Amino acid sequence: MSVSRRRLAAILSMDVEGFSTLVEADEARTLDAVARMSERVEATVGDYGGQVFKHTGDGCLAEFASAVSAVAWAASFQRAMGGEDLEQGLRLKVRIGIVVGDVVVTEDDRFGEGVNLAARVQTLSPPGGIAISRGVFEYLAGKTDLYFTDIGERALKGLSERHRIWTWDPKVIGVRRRRRVTAPDPATHPSIAILPFENLSGDAARDGFVDGLVEEVTASLSRVREFLVIARNSAYVYKSHAVDMRTIAAELGVRYILDGSVRFAGERMRVTLGLVDGASGVQIWSERVDAQTTDMFAVQDQIAEMVAGALHPTIRQAEIERSSRKAPENLAAYDLVLRALPHLWAHRRHENPQAIALVDEALALEPGYGRALAIGAWARAQQIAYNWSADLAAERAAGRALIERAAGLIDDDPLALTAAATAIMLIDGAVERADALIDRALGIDVNHAWAWTRRGFSRTYSGRPEEAFACFERAIRLSPRDPFSFNSFIGMGLAHFACGRPREALAWTRRALAEKPGMTWPYRDVATFSAAASDLAGARDALARFTAGRPDMTARLATEAMGFMNAALRERYVDGLVAAGLPDDRAAGRRATAN
């Protein structure tokens, strides 16, 4: 009879993603691949102090003496699996979960809370990646260069408590941390306090719901790296106290204050919100939300999402205006980048170089400013994508250099991650690598509208346009007043064109042009979409508008600028430009390449 004992251990659970489907499609190849995977596990796990104590058909459970060793082995294993030669057989995608928990140990097995938790955490792992619990994450502090994204508290099947989970995905490459990540400096970055909302119903029983709503909004905004959020307990002292907003802002040391009230009528509720500039006491944004209270958690999530999405552009615009009021001699790198953003958003040929000049000035002051490096790369990518430069090779080289310098400096900044992803996508067409950065940005801040817009473009570029619409729609819903929202309209147009709906594509692109007067490059889209819709007169007119500042424009140059699109979409797009009258020199370019 075996003797059992208890101990704290690092437990790893793994299994194959989509195993049943793979077996149904090709049983022999799948079982062969799983057998080779098991051999790799047994051959390597001992090198990291691990021991497999149970096989589960398409996976296993293992114990490690150290959580750090368990993560190190898991990362090494996943990288090896990701690089496996396809000629050897089927490539499997494995999910791995690692926890630190209490286990009951017998001679040849393990039972208990730790084992159950590891199996549940494993289900949250990205395919080919790792998911870990809070205990493991705390053990890793300063002991690994892997980047884990906090995906928040999750409900796990069969467990009563919610658990906070972090995930790692090996597709996220080239951005390992080189330095400790610091919080925004309240002296230079925007900061906000969320005051307790007023319960206007007079029913004290509703206080818990209202407090929970404020808690959810505060937690949601706390995940936004673009501004610092004061802890809820600090703001809670102002509940039921009539204090001037400017006084509260001064006492808490914040620039902005979010205030709100909730009114109930049966099962309906109305939430009124207002954002106040702490220095002047002036309200700079307001919104009203009507909802049902029957599912209070869904209502809280909806309002938190709306507030987070709306405050992004509102606070950013307020910060830009604040920076513009500063005397030139007081400008620092942060303010220079803020001033660059409107020129970047303008999408006009003469303004983009102004954005580049301001970012370069910021980098002269602070060469290691990750956000400036990423935004500078984005600006140079626009020079390429919109045929604004006569020397695309030089722009690519400059953009690549900035992307390389940004590696390790933008790990927790969704805006910088999105900017870098855009640059990587437009400069080199590396959509998969860009997707990894976008996923990281959304892992940090799921309400980042720009990241959703770029995810929509990546889906379109990679040949999955039907998946793009939901991304663009979410970006528009999150940030309807964003000065960059017209870019989602451009994306909707391209996605419709990719799906073979040129008339719908035209409607969205014209809406973008109406939203942002002065842009000319989208007439390239209008020319192509009009030609596809058999409106050759409209196509020729649009092409003339596009080429007015580009007299040497040809089909080959258009093709070179749009290397980010998949080949079939790019060829169909340029065919439309040729039908509109653009000189077709693509054959000459192909002959030159062949020679």
TrEMBL record:
PANTHER family listed in its UniProt record: ADENYLATE CYCLASE, TERMINAL-DIFFERENTIATION SPECIFIC-RELATED, PH-SENSITIVE ADENYLATE CYCLASE RV1264
Domain of life: Bacteria
Lyase is among the record's keywords: no
Keyword Zinc: no
GO biological process: cAMP biosynthetic process; intracellular signal transduction
UniProt name for this protein: Tetratricopeptide repeat protein
Cited Gene3D superfamilies: Nucleotide cyclase, Tetratricopeptide repeat domain, TolB, N-terminal domain
Pfam family, one: Guanylate_cyc
GO molecular function annotations of the record: adenylate cyclase activity
Keywords tagged on the record: TPR repeat
Guanylate cyclase domain: residues covered: 10-122
Classification via PROSITE patterns: GUANYLATE_CYCLASE_2, TPR
TPR repeats mapped onto the chain: 449-482
